[in-house]
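Lecture notes, unit on protein representations.

Consider one protein chain, 207 amino acids long.
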Amino acid sequence: YRMLALAAVTALLATLAALPARADERDERAIRALIDQSVQAANSTDPKLMERNLANHDPNGGPFYHPFVMSLATLADVRALVAQVSPQIASHHYQITGPVKIQPGKYVSWAAFTWHAEVTFKDGTNRSFDGRSTITFGRNKEDHPWKITHWHSSLPAAFPLTTSARQGESQQILQIERSAWDAIQNKQPAALGNYFAENASVFNEQQ
């Protein structure tokens, strides 16, 4: 009887020990599925895939840090950005370039990975860049589905603008330079008021 009791206790302990591991594995699979759907949306111009990805976000989530714009405080801001940028893109390719690290938790989990993206704009501009993203997932109860509550992505350099946007910026800069030169030529120092930044900083080569 002692041997049977010991065997029963051992089996029970083994079962209990396996439960958290199975829960973690289940949560990790669910999180990977959300990441896969995000990648599918990033590789398509299909509005249905984009909407599915947005629906995977927590309506009360945020902020979200996009690599190309200022921070987006709410999901509504993310939707507005998608609506603004999507019509300008002809095609884009998005690929995860390294292992996806996932840390599952009871109510909060996170994942981190590197990626490579290539974008073709409708004006013919082609851009490619590499970055890194971290995504946070949350839920209110253990039996509730995971939702994306926060993400931030970063690039080693600023987002390269489209050709037409860069040309527009160049024209604005040239106009500022011309106006400054005219002010100097005409001895009108007050006209230089908008030439210098209010909070400018100067760096030497060692900084």
